[in-house]
Amino acid sequence: EVQLVESGGGLVQPGGSLTLSCAASGFTFRSYWMHWVRQAPGKGLVWVSRINGDGSTTNYADSVKGRFTISRDNAENTLYLQMNSLRAEDTALYYCVRDLQWLGGDYWGQGTLVTVSS
Amino acid sequence: DAVMTQSPLSLPVTLGQPASISCRSSQSLVHSDGNTYLNWFQQRPGQSPRRLIYKVSNRDSGVPDRFSGSGSGTDFTLKISRVEAEDVGIYYCMQGTVWPPGFGQGTKVEIK
């Protein structure tokens, strides 16, 4: 059974940093693109970032470029999102998603909540 | 970017009646590989999104056959043949053809 379990969310002050993790199981993790998608409270879904199977290619939404870094550890089957210079508008539930673009996001985690506030 | 526009944004439906959600893209979603990467997701209250339909019209395993997807190019539709109480939630279309991937605003389906 495919499982994606996010962790690492919490309350952080503006300008602070946080690292999210997504533990994957039930599939050959290294074979898949992985994505982060976020959802601000009461709002819609927004794509944030993606990384290919071996970690050599990464892409970001303009809103997070230069502040967020996506990475993965295929030995540990874990996806990461390092978030720096956090802003109030980064407050959201962050979802880990398997291959959103080509497979259409067939599996999603339960999400981890990031709150940026003083 | 391909802008995805859903309508309506709110859809009150009587139990047992049909429902239809439109999703229009500002650009053609036909990829150079011949596929159209247009998907539909359901998000029930308090839950993560769940994919219902992939590549326009392919229903996911476990999705009731009252859900169907259709369309081509820039215009797509999700139909529920007979709405049930468990269908309450927000429905999103999402495209993966044009960079970057993008979602519609969401359509809230509720029971009248």
Question: What does this molecule look like?
Answer:
Chain A is 0% helix and 49% strand. Chain A contains no helices and eleven strands. In chain A, the strands form two sheets. In chain A, strands 2, 4, 5, 6, 9, 10 and 11 form a seven-stranded mixed sheet that branches. Chain A has a four-stranded antiparallel sheet with strand order 1-3-8-7, with no helix packed on it. The mean pLDDT of chain A is 97. In chain B, strands 2, 4, 5, 6, 9, 10 and 11 form a seven-stranded mixed sheet that branches. At the A-B interface, β5 of A face β4, β5 and β10 of B.
Number of strands of chain B: 11
Low-confidence stretches of chain B: none
Overall 3D shape of chain A: globular
Which class best fits the helix and strand makeup of chain B? Answer: mainly beta
Distance between the termini of chain A: 40 Å
Helix content of chain B: under 10%
The end-to-end distance of chain B, rounded to whole angstroms, is 36 Å
* Mean of pLDDT of chain A: 97
Helix count of chain B? 0
Largest sheet of chain A: 7 strands, mixed
**Largest interchain contact:** A-B, 20 and 21 residues
> What is the count of helical runs of chain A?
0
SSE arrangement:
The complex is a heterodimer of chains A (118) and B (112).
Chain A: E1 3-7, E2 10-12, E3 18-25, E4 34-39, E5 45-51, E6 58-60, E7 68-73, E8 78-83, E9 92-98, E10 107-108, E11 112-116
Parallel strand pairs in A: 2-11
Antiparallel strand pairs in A: 1-3, 3-8, 4-5, 4-9, 5-6, 7-8, 9-10, 9-11
Chain B: E1 4-7, E2 10-13, E3 19-25, E4 38-43, E5 50-54, E6 58-59, E7 67-72, E8 75-80, E9 89-95, E10 102-103, E11 107-111
